[in-house]
Amino acid sequence: MNSPTNINLYLTYLFLLLISFPLYGQTNLQFTGPIQIGDYQGIAKYTYQIEDEDTIFNGNFSAQSFNLNVLSSKEKDFFSIDGLFNAGFPDNTWSVRFGTFTAEEGAAFENYHFKVKVSGKQHTAIVNFDRGKPAGEWIHTIRNIQHSKVENTSYVSSSQFEDGIARGYLRIKNDSLTLLGRFLRNGLAHDIWELDFYKELGRMETWVFSEGFLEKIIIQKDENTEEFIIYEDVNSQIITVNLDHRYLKILEVQDLFNVKLYENKGGKMAGLIKKNASHNHKVENIVTNIHNKNDQLAKPKYLVKVAHYPLDEKELEQLDFIIENLQNIDTTSKSLIENTGLNILKHSDEEVMYLLSALEEISEKYILPVRKVVNYGEKNLLSFLPREELRWSAENNQASVSEIRVDYQDSSGLKSRVFTGPNPDDFDDNESGMPYLLKLSEYAIGSVKAIEKKLAKKIKQYSIKKELENLEKKLLKEEDRLIFLVDSMRDTQTHASIDEPLQNLKRTAIAALAQYATEESLLTKPNKALQLIECMKTLQSLAKSLARQPVRSNEIQELYTEEVWNPFTATIMNDQVKQRITEAYDQVLIPYLHQQIENKLKCENSEYYLNLLDELYDKMVALRNQDTSKFERKLKNEKDPLVVLELFNLAM
Amino acid sequence: MLKFNNRVKIKYLLLYFFILSGLMVRAQDAGSPKVSEFKPPVSRLWINTYGNIRISDKFFWIAQTHFRFQESDKMILAGQVAQIYNRHAINYLFSKQFNVSLGGVLRLNFNTDEILEDETPLVPEWRIWHEYQFAQPLYRFMVYHRVRIEHRWTRNFKDNSSFVYRNRWRYMLNIKIPLNKPKLAPGTFYLGPEAEVILQSGKPVINSPLEDLRLHTSFGYIVKPQLTLAAGLMYSLGQEIPYGELYNQKWTLRLHVYFSPDFRKIENRLPKVH
User: Fold this and answer.
1) Full-model pTM
2) Cα–Cα distances in Å, from A595 out to A502, A586, A589?
3) Which residues 192-251 in chain B show a CB within 8 A of chain A?
């Protein structure tokens, strides 16, 4: 019954079963559900395994992003991906589609489905991997879709990869150009890369590579040939990079390639290279986003060579200082250049205009090499920059690097001055590279700080000036008030005795103002103005006090008058009591004070006279009801006002 | 009530005086000479101080001292002392228009004639006097009516002569006219014309009731309510006792000092400042 052949077959089955058992040791699981891939949200369906609590894709993977509001007429992004993972790595052929569509009007409902026609653009990438590494053909096709039908193909590119590196040819065709580029077996771009403008006769662009080095670019157009020499001799270190936008940037950094000039001359190849690289990057980005071990994924590379200037440790340290200095310069300059007060002030103060212009000159032009270095540093391009040649260009004809020519506009026209920062002699112009740039940044920061100091003083003066302006307005107002007061009093007063003292109040005020006008120091002027305002107020009070004096004298007269019965005339008579005191007041002190105010009045003693008049009046009121016999005896025949004042306890 | 009937009263008083004097003249008609005789005028100088010292709201102490000189053979006006008056009284201020006084006088009379053997050079004269003064403003002036009645005891210079009692009836019309000010006030110069009739009665008074008729005008200055100075010239005419036909005439230069201190000031009670 069981033949040996059968037994052998069984044994073979058993053997196969035994050796394949470990392969089935881990169970493949299915997942269907929502997924986030980069910016896309969608529904995914994939097979996976769990290994050490990690999800390992294994098997088919498909995902599609969708928009629930598919019927809206707004432009929508579409995305779908189909491929295979092998033990976590993309493998075999993958198809990725990116679309941008607009739904058309007139949706049809058929077989329980909405049918909506769309128009737009679809980018299809068919790419191949071998255990995570680009391998085989990578094709990008961009089609224009009209009414849900392919209208035309606007872009096709294809390249062959081995072990992640392009070999053979890179072919790109769009609606007007065809690019054919060749790679050596080692993956380096080589030989002539041709861009054919097949719609334009006589137009051709050629990039000449030699084992990865781009030697020159030749652009032919209407019998004109433009040639850009790129690498002739490379004396520095060499590094292999990917042919993409960064490569073009490196060429720019090394001052070998000017993209604007190139494009002006009709160069198109760079654009195609960038586009191809970005398409690759787009796919790679999607795949690496699915694959959570992206660092293990190889990227599709087109190899080219560039000069390389790696930074040593010292240079990296210097770069840190340079970055710090530049930040400092930028923060300080920005705050000063944008300062409202300074921006107002610069129109009236030439020095401010000059300093702000110097600041702009420093931060925008002078430290340009520094900024360049920091900028490239941030973009990881610094190691491609030949730093030895970086210098502050002498385009402004300055005598030395420490002398910065500043052109600025003021009310009288365009002016030019040379700004020199602090310690210009410390700036050793003989250095080069990063040490030179560090010195440049240090000199610049010193200069900016010096300017900041000067401007801070200016802005302080500006605020003082503003304050002073307000004070002076107030001062003039008080002076006007005084003049008005005095004039109106002189118009209404009939007492000649106070006419001259009142006049002198005006003279004193005017003299004080004239004296004030000669003050130049902004530091002391506000205080002087404040004092003068007080003086004007005191003079006003003094004017009022003077004007009140006749009334006060009458009041004192009345206060010191008693009604007395005169038995001899049988009449009531007014009797002046304590006449020596009233006489001292009326005939000695008041005339003396008026005379003093007329001849000796100053801001400094104005308050004294004001107070003296008040105190004297108060004293007179108080003395009325006091026993003053002794005091009156002392006053007898005393005509010296100073002695009388002393007797009144009001000595000067 | 005095306020409104002053004038009436004065009229009655005047009438009374004239009737009285008329009766007296008639009573002596029989044996008297046919004509009166006016003696030559005598010149005199009076220096009078008038003190009205206020002692309360309504009361004053009147203290007057008069020094009266008259001519001598050697000197006019003040050749010799004639009398020294010392007059005191309490004055009651009834109202602004009326006040009364009552007091006594000691007058020292000096013998101005040749002193005979049985004569003494100086005799005292005692008086009790009372006075009623009416004051009223009239335009810018002040008009005063003064009635003074004096009860006097006099004796002559004869040694051991006895005191004789007489009464004096005096009425004076006095006007004060401010010159440099609208009314009487400190610093005012004023003119004070006055006329006074002094009648007398008593046992020895037979045919000489008119003791004196004084016409006096003074020029004064009110230094302050408490002090007034004045100077005036007075003509006076009066009958002699017992020869009523004989009329004495006198020209008197009068100097007056009026003072009225008030010692009631309250500031004495307040703290001293100096």
Assistant:
1) 0.50
2) 11, 13, 10
3) 222, 224-226, 228
